[in-house]
Amino acid sequence: MSHSAAVVPARRVEQARTRENFPVALRILPRRYRRHLLALYAYARQVDDLGDEALPAPTDRLAALDEVEAELRLLYAGRRVTHPAVRVLVPTVAECRLPLDALVRLVEANRVDQRVTRYATFDQLVEYCTLSANPVGELVLRVFGQDSPARIALSDRVCTALQIVEHLQDVAEDHRRGRVYLPAEDMARFGVTEADLARPTAGRQLRELVEFSAERARAWLDAGAPLVSALHGWARLAVGGYLAGGRATLDALAAADHDPLRTTVRPRGRRVLLRWLSATVRSAG
Description:
CATH class of the largest domain: Mainly Alpha
Number of strands: 0
Order of helices and strands: HHHHHHHHHHHHHHH
CATH superfamily of the largest domain: Farnesyl Diphosphate Synthase
CATH topology of the largest domain: Farnesyl Diphosphate Synthase
Helix content: 55-70%
Low-confidence stretches: 1-18
């Protein structure tokens, strides 16, 4: 049986989309942008699921990821593709001329997940984000036709921050999967052990570590925030929504006393809206 048969169903992609911290594709966006953004999300989500849980063994997952990359290269060679994760991209690749490299880096991030489950330093984690998160921002900018090098550099800051925020939300879930995205140097600094990540509630040391990491992520978000004012039209609204989601999630972490173990930390819709209005109005002014 082809590994592509293990691709996550569209129903699960939709369920995952509703759990994101930010609006993947604002409903007010014109249809041409919405369908391209949703296609990108479906591709990224299915590739992530192949790397995380769709197949039982790392060797199977690597083979499935290799199949996705091979199909991507067929697509860019003008050949017919059959893999569901790639097929969804066909109109978007054609109309937006997406860079192949950015799509392949998302596959490579999931290959890394099969062999790297711990990060010694924050710099190593940031390097991982260049594969797992930053390509998404570059692809979004390409959809809107506003992917200049300066904008991509700002986008990288935002995307890395959003990835780190997601890791902070998912400390317990990631640990159950055998992965720890809190850098070992930070855990040692705050006296946190891996056993602390398996507890029902976070102790003082872990809460202090999460707070420290959250504020560092906030600084990265702030560094990338000028991207919103550097964009125009619908792109400004869409990217403002992503930034707002990150900030609202940091607000939710703070409201939970920086304890991601006791409860599932998710931003409230009203808080995302307020943050989105703040980001877009400030950039327009």
